[in-house]
Write a structure and sequence with these properties.
Helices cover about 55% and strands about 5% of the residues. The N terminus is likely disordered. The chain has a single domain, classed as P1 Nuclease, CATH 1.10.575.10.
Length: about 280
């Protein structure tokens, strides 16, 4: 019975992109851990107090985990579309069809404004929840298939095989490639990725939500082009991992670096939203 329940959950995740978890827990942990290592002492103290001694890594997958919980039924189901933004080929975030329920870009913009410009009017629980959501959504924004095409539901309808097993392109980028690329825990990923050139990090940190998202869209386009060149339902394996390992590394590092100024801003109370 337990195996049957797990199988049903996995099938539902493939069918519904709103239930697909970008990067999986490990990828989100890496993004949060990279950011955490570069926070100022003041920001760390503020976050530590707000999260009652927990780290942002601890809550990096909170926004995925609350689905089907009391939180979800008490209003957070309205944020189910805030994990992604689907952009069809030839369109941009500015010209794409916007989801009426919101997306990862305008969702982050809303949350950041609330935490900077409206902070004093928020309840303690709202501040805690908004921080947890921001931690997660910056990671989502950097997962390529969470900037995938609307026409195929962010790669969910692109059927592939992953080492011979049927899957979808979305599922491959949500967690499978992270798990296959290295047999590392999140601390090892963080240690090895967080040695990048300081100029790279600074260039990322100067970006905005829309600029970061545009780069993810560009990364997704290269993945689509590669997969489409292989024909119908291609078998992706070691060659795919090898060819796209640089993209995987860069997106995880980019997400961690992008998170640094966001979290700093929240606790220096800048009147600045990264739209």
């Amino acid at each position: 019975m337990k195996r049957l329940a797990i199988s049903i959950v996995c099938i539902l995740m493939l069918l519904d992109p709103t239930n697909a978890f970008a990067w999986g827990a490990k990828g989100h942990d890496v993004v949060a851990a990279i950011a955490e290592q570069h926070l100022t002492p003041k920001a760390k103290r503020k976050i530590n107090k707000l999260l009652d001694g927990r780290s942002i890594v601890y809550y990096s997958s909170w926004m995925d985990n609350i689905q089907n919980s009391p939180y979800w039924e008490n209003g957070y189901n309205k944020t189910k579309t805030w994990h992604y933004a689907n952009v069809d080929k030839g369109l941009t975030y500015q010209t794409m069809q916007k989801n009426e329920s919101g997306d990862v870009v305008n969702g982050l913009d809303f949350l950041t404004k609330q935490m900077t410009e409206n902070y004093d009017n928020l309840t303690d629980s709202m501040r805690v929840d908004y921080l947890k959501m921001i931690v997660h959504m910056v990671g989502d924004m950097h997962c390529p298939m969470h900037a995938g095409r609307l026409s195929d539901r962010g790669g969910n309808n692109v059927r592939v095989k992953w080492f011979g097993q049927r899957s979808s392109l979305h599922s491959v980028w949500d967690s499978k490639i992270v798990e296959s690329a290295r047999r590392w825990g999140y601390k090892e990923w963080t240690e090895h990725l967080d040695r990048a050139d300081k100029k790279f990090k600074k260039s990322v940190m100067r970006g905005t939500y829309q600029e970061w998202f545009k780069e993810t869209v560009n990364g997704a386009a290269s993945i689509y082009e590669y997969v489409e060149s292989l024909g119908e339902e291609p078998n992706l394996s070691y060659q795919f991992v090898y060819d796209f390992f640089p993209v995987l590394e860069e997106q995880l590092l980019h997400g961690g670096s992008a998170s640094i100024p966001v979290h700093q801003a929240l606790f220096y109370r800048f009147r600045h939203c990264r739209q």
